[in-house]
From TrEMBL:
InterPro entries: Glycerophosphate_synth, Glyco_trans_2-like, Nucleotide-diphossugar_trans, TagF_C, TagF_N, Teichoic_Acid_Biosynth. GO terms for molecular function: CDP-glycerol glycerophosphotransferase activity. Belongs to the CDP-glycerol glycerophosphotransferase family. It comes from Micromonospora robiginosa. GO terms for biological process: teichoic acid biosynthetic process. Transmembrane segments: none annotated. This is Bifunctional glycosyltransferase family 2 protein/CDP-glycerol:glycerophosphate glycerophosphotransferase.
Amino acid sequence: MTLISFVVPAYRVQGYLRECLDSILDQPFADVEVIGVDDASPDGSGEILAEYAARDPRVRPVRLTENVGLGPARNIGLDRAVGEYVWFVDGDDWLVPGCLPHVADRLRDTRPDVLIVDHVRAHWNNVGTRSAMRDVFPDPPGPETFTVRDRPEVLKLLHTAWNRLIRREFLVERGLRFAPGWYEDVSFSYPALMAADRIGVLDRVCLNYRQRRTGAITRTRGDRHFEVFAQWHRVFRLMDRWGTDGLRPAVFERMVWHHLTVLGNGERIAPELRAPFFAQMHADYVHFLPPGGYPVPPGAEGVKHRLVAAGRWRTFSALREVHRVRDAARGTAGRARRRVAPALRRTARRARDTALSEYYRAELRRPIDPTLAVYAAYWYRGYSCNPAAIYEAARRLAPQVRGVWIVRRDRVATLPPGVEYVVAGTREYHRVLARAHWLVNNVNFPDFVHKRPGSVHVQTHHGTPVKVMGLDQQRYPVGAMGMNFAGLLRRVDRWDYSVTSNSFSTQMWERAYPADYTTLEVGYPRNDRLARATADEGRQVRAALGIGPDEYVVLYAPTHREHLPGWRPPFDPDRMRDVLGANGRLLMRSHYFHDRERQPRGPAAGGVLDVSAYDRVEDLYLAADVLVTDYSSAMFDYAVLDRPIVVYAPDWDAYRVARGVYLDLLAEPPGAVAVDLPGLLDLFRSGAVAGEAADRARAVFRARFCALDDGLAAERVVRRVFLGETP
């Protein structure tokens, strides 16, 4: 029999589900199954479950035709489970690496009905807060098992389903199921503890409980939080049926604590609903109060309990306001102290900067220009990428929109003829940023840019992510040195639209940049040209580069290592050129971060041509027969052409540990793979670059990442954003 069945419900968790599944399947313990329940999720969660099931027989997906909610979805998974124990893990949480052997040992050694494991709250800002385990059990119980009557303090551990494993036959025998509605854990977890003859506690952190910035029920206001009362009513009905009156005082205290927790969270109960919620708390207090009373907690918490008992809402509300004002005053004083140093720095700025800032604020008071769209790419490095493709489509489909580009002064000469522009840092630059109706960028605009009501910010990104991005970089501090994540989120909060090229990107951006933008999963506008390219266009590009039509062209384009400035992968262009032969040509292109180091493009030397200064990388793709890259998003773009791709990853192990990756390129490559220079040269000598195995890998890769790149992505963006059309 399988030891552990994981039941993983999935609803709107596409940004987190892969991490959850990987955390289970990559454990050094394989005696598990995963029942993934797609609760009619409108995002890509169901496709992710199917993808994992296709490559790991331990994953068993269940796809529901209608949304039933978390509790019923767990029940459906429970009905299909075959394991001796069931662990209900939510799709946005994840296990701690290496925890499962310890869990399995405790299960086999003690055979509990319920085993509670420790957890941490993993906040979106990478802060972790511990659970109440140490407070409840200052001296860990060790391997002993007990009942609630033996140790009633166990009820004070968080009452969720995901921090405990439960013997499946025990659940079946006692008829324990999840009720529908919010707070479904309440009417499942407490009865399970009260019914269990053998409860165990593993004093080891095994699960990361994700505290999401957006999308979590605990951060959603609404009247559905009143459903907590019905869940507690179920608990007391079961107690009456089972005759467990001896536990009533301890359970009652937990009910009052939970109600106060829900009411005290300002992100759950709207101001107009607080009085009715308190009234229901008072009614339940009176109805379920044990005849002999219960242990009222000391201090301020006890005061709250007594006010609930008396139904004194006005006093309760007034005291809460006093505490809020006091806390706000403390925060204001702290912020004032923290503002001293920035204020001193601001006074030292040059007069020109001050004048420009005042000018920008003045322009913000003027009306938005309803026809103005501002474009930028790669921190003002010029005219390129998705913004350029959208600009061109807008000129054709929405000629009433006036497009203006922002560029650095040293990049003005790279603009195509006829493109209107302003130079970054000038008065005109501040004016268009203040007055624009649309702001389109493949990175973020500076922090000073104000999100005006009525303006529309479009984040196009600049590649399908291999390396981790956004908030996920907090776990890889070597590659995120100096990043201000709070500032990043303020910039992300300006986005109205996020353009993605495939479902995988959508999922990763949702996790890395949690905010309330609308995702446009339409393909990448910059790849429209590649999708529509003809053989004649490729020949013209080659001729412009001085490359003959019969030459075999390899483009080598490694990515930048933020955590290793100045480091370059070991690569010998002369040896590569020798392998390619007399008819071969090697094009070498550095990352755009090194654009200030680039030298003007000159003639090829011995068949090797440095094309780092070539502005339109799409031309280079069209000219190349093969792309050699490492962790660059170039592979996703080049795959649109359906030509051979080689992943050259000499520092793969170090890179994924230090920088972090979303995709295992060695396991799911777009073609042949080499991890050292001799191996790379052998791929070309042997012809494996374009062999049958490489072709199969590329076909799978293209199906997964390039399905939307049909040449119409920019048009779809323009029609939605500029013309207001809906698909």
